[in-house]
Amino acid sequence: MIPLTYGATSADRRQDPTMRAFRADRFGQFVHWGLYAIPAGTWQGRTIEFAAEFLMHSAHVSREDWAALAADFTLDGFDPAEWARTARRMGARYVTVTTKHHDGFCLWPSAYSDFTVAATPSGRDVLGEILDAYRAEGLATHLYYSVLDWHHPDWRYAIESDDDRIAFDRYLDFATNQLLELAERYPQTRGFWFDGTWDESVKANGRWTHEIEQLLKERIPGAIVNSRLRADDRGARHFDSNGALMGDYESGYERRLPAPWDRSVSVYDWEACATLTQASWGFHDSAWAERGRKTPAQMVEQLAHTVSLGGNLLLNFGPRGDGSLAPVETALADAVGAWMAVNGAAVHDSGPAPGWDYPGWGFYTAPLQADASAEVSDGVVHAIVTRIPVSGILTIALPPGLALRAVRALVDGAETPFTVLDAHTVQLPASAFTGMPTVLALETVPAGQ
Ligand code: JFZ
Question: Ligand 1, atom 10: nearest CA belongs to which residue?
Fold first, then answer.
């Protein structure tokens, strides 16, 4: 063991009510919204085929020119109640909102910056309105905060001189002030999602990452913090130099997921995040962004995949510059929501099915047990069928000691006959061939009963 002062603070996963609720939620909505939604990937007629929220950087826009966008942040189509209803209908149980992205623009009227919504025509506390709207729909709220800041003069990528160190220390004080301000203004916040922490300057300040996590947890007891914030004494990130997870859950799976048979991730909490477009988090108004747009079936497959391995999925939406949701994203939310309305029991309050091996044709999930150490899931296990074999027949390899009692499709409750050959096989019902994943509830009993 390498002795560390700022390494992992606990070897075990949290089991307090806030963390259990977050774990049981499984499905969250990510919202990336800021000034970058106005140019939406195009600057002075040139479309940059890269994430819209990076445009200031990728189109080499000066601080002044970028800051001038604030005058166009007019909220003409901004209806946070509509965002929140869309998220609830989709089946999301929490939202993570960008309070400040890399460009430094703050969605709340921060006392520590003049580059905020207070300098836009409406002057409104946009963040506060968003958070209130989601809570009114029953969703928990988490705050995304980029430590990387292209606007602040004291930001440094690396510390190469005393001047850099002095400037960056000032920068970290600024970030601390802003984060404590957020905690004070929005005390119902359930978690903080840190980003922009990969530079040498932050890695050389593992102490700050440790201290801000502790400070926020003092101000908001139970607050949940992602691993991406953290660096240890030696600059190791996410996992400390001894391999222990820092923060409350791992947050490195971004636009990718662990291999479906890889249960090694299920020993800790984790959350993946995914874009609906090609690779843009902010609204990108271009054929490029549309080219890779995901379908509802793909998103449901990612959700099933994630839950089967004990993770949460944060599905990103990028509202447009006027604050309205793009119709294509609303349509996707509604399609996912229609699926969740029928099949949500396989996602919410669910997790891996211990003892049930990855079946190839989809994913198994099981209701979260009070006792997370169970070795085999009995009772009901959900089979989320995402890849129907051409035979239309599923092979179900039961864990030793269990027998199948009944198979029911969640869509209509109809019992689906199955045969027991060398393994259990199930002929899929016609209702399975809809283009969306089918969920079968497998009712098991101890073998021999
Ligand atoms: C970051 C941001 O730069 C991006 O704009 C967005 O907010 C996203 C959620 O987070 O992007 C990353 C961060 C980490 C990885 C990739 C993109 N990574 O670990 O592969």
Answer: 195
User: Domain coordinates of the chain in residue numbers?
Assistant: 17-346, 353-446
Q: Tens of pLDDT along 26-83?
A: 999 999 999 999 999 999 999 999 999 999 999 999 999 999 999 999 999 999 999 9
Domain 353-446 adopts which CATH fold? Immunoglobulin-like (2.60.40)
From atom 3 of ligand 1, which residue's Cα is the shortest distance away?
Answer: 196
Measured in Å, residue 187 CA sits from the centre of ligand 1 at: 26
From ligand 1's centre to the CA of 274, what distance in Å? 10
What is the per-residue pLDDT for 447?
Answer: 85
Output the pTM of the full model: 0.96
- Name residues contacting ligand 1 (CB within 6 A): 51, 53, 195, 252, 254, 273, 281
Count of beta carbons in the 10 Å neighbourhood of residue 112? 15
Summarised one tens digit per residue, pLDDT across range 346-371 is: 999 999 999 999 999 999 999 998 76
* Cα 53 to averaged position of ligand 1 atoms, centre (Å): 10
Residue reference for tokens 């984060």: 179
Q: Which two tokens stand for residue 98?
A: 């960008």
CA of 318 to the centre of ligand 1 (A): 14
**Distance (Å) of CA 85 to CA 29, 95, 319, 328, 337:** 12, 12, 14, 16, 11
Region 312-319 average pLDDT? 98
Give yes or no for residue 375 having a pLDDT over 80.
Answer: no
What CATH code is assigned to 17-346? 3.20.20.80
Among protein residues, the one whose CA lies closest to atom 20 of ligand 1: 254
More confident residue, 373 or 438: 438
Q: What is the pLDDT of residue 303?
A: 98
